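I am still learning, so would you mind making up any protein sequence you like and the C-alpha cells describing how it folds?
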Amino acid sequence: MPRLIQTPETTYRVHFQDCDMLGHLNNARYLDYFLNAREDHTSEHYALNMGELAREQNAAWVITKHHISYLKPARQGAKVRILSQLIHFDNSNLVLEMQMRSEDGSRLLALLWSEMTYVTMPAGTRTDHANAMMDLLDEVDVDTIDYDPDGFDERVKQVRRELKNQRRNAGADE
C-alpha cells in the first residue's frame, strides 16, 4: 500500500468578497481558507469525511486554540498555495500546522497552528481516538517537525529561513 501524503497542498484564488478595503485577505478569512483547505485535504488524501465520521462515532474534533502569524498580505485575485500537516497528536488531541504561501510556494504569507481536542457529542467531553484513528494519525504525522507548544514563533522563523534558503539555492531574487 502506498504511503499517505503527509503534507497535501491546494491552490486557491483570493476572492474580492474575502478582502478588506486595501485588497488584502481579511484576517478572519484566513481561518476559513485554512480550514476549508484542510477539509479538502482530509477528504481527498485520507478519504475522511468529517461530518460522516462525527455521526458514525458520535465524536468530533473541536478547536481549542489557534496561533496565527500574518507575514505578507494575500491580495485579491492572487493565487495562494495552502499546505496542511499534522505535527503532533496524542490519545485525544492533535495539532495541525497550515501554511499559506505564494502560488509558487517560495514565500510564506501566513502560518497557523490549530490545536484540537476529540470530544463526544453532544456532551462535549474529551474522549480517546479509536485505535484505527491512532494508526492513521501515526501514518500522517510529520515527525520531522519538533513540536513545542511554546515554539510557535520559532517555527515561523524556521519556515521562513527554509524558504529563503530554497530561493537562494534556486538563484531567485530576495
The chain has one domain: 9-169. The longest strand covers residues 108-120. The first helix runs from residue 27 to 46.
